[in-house]
Design goal:
This protein has about 190 residues and is mainly α. It is built from ten helices and two strands, in the order αααααααβααβα. It has helices spanning about 15-25, 35-45, 50-65, 70-75, 80-85, 95-115, 120-125, 145-160, 165-175, 185-190, and strands at about 130-135, 180. It has a two-stranded parallel sheet with strand order 1-2. Helix 2 packs antiparallel against helix 6 (about 95-115). It starts with 16 loop residues before the first helix and ends with a helix. The relative contact order is 0.17.
């Protein structure tokens, strides 16, 4: 447990101020806005194989590179844009991840059209459409994936999403608050 400022936190955020801010202000808080949801989708898929803090440190660069996380604009990106992004040292310069962000934007828009919003689509997998609140006491108890993330990941793959396997999916569900995995004695649990 991180106890900076006398507040108990989930130990994964360590003592990095950026990580602490993310933990305290965003992680595990229910996202109801599709623009924010798309931001997390881009960032989570970029994170595959890397640490989350690496992506957090590049977040503003991603915001600029990917049109403020506007899915409609990202969906229209071309090969020329991909080549420009491959030269951008502020983001992860992995062609497959960049291409995935663009194609995922197109699939994101398809889901919005079908379900009214991407948030509604994700909530359709949740019991009664409500976030799952776990009661973990230690970080070791928190799984890397679950049957729920398996199901959502498989469905998203059917839609055509890339870089969104079950582990990335579970991390995404945690980040957007559709699965609340704040430890039971974390101060963020008490704010709910």
């Amino acid at each position: 447990m991180n106890t900076e400022n006398n507040l108990k936190r989930c130990g994964w955020c360590g003592d990095d101020p950026l990580y602490i801010k993310y933990h305290d202000e965003e992680w595990g808080r229910e996202v109801k806005d599709d623009n924010k949801m798309f931001e997390f989708l881009v960032l989570e898929s970029a994170q595959a194989g890397l640490s989350w803090i690496t992506i957090l440190r590049k977040r503003e660069n991603y915001r600029k590179a990917f049109a403020g996380f506007n899915a409609k604009k990202v969906a229209k990106m071309t090969e020329k844009n991909i080549e420009e992004l491959m030269q951008n040292s502020g983001i992860i310069r992995n062609r497959r991840k960049i291409e995935a962000a663009i194609s995922n934007a197109r699939h994101f828009l398809e889901i919005q059209k079908e379900f009214g919003s991407f948030c509604s689509y994700l909530k359709s997998f949740l019991p009664d459409g409500k976030p799952i609140i776990n009661k973990w006491k230690t970080l070791k108890q928190i799984p890397a994936s679950t049957p729920l993330s398996d199901t959502i990941s498989k469905d998203m793959k059917k839609w055509g999403f890339k870089f969104f396997g079950t582990i990335i999916c579970y991390s995404h569900l945690q980040a957007v608050g559709y699965v609340n995995d704040h430890l039971v004695d974390c101060h963020c649990r008490k704010q709910k």
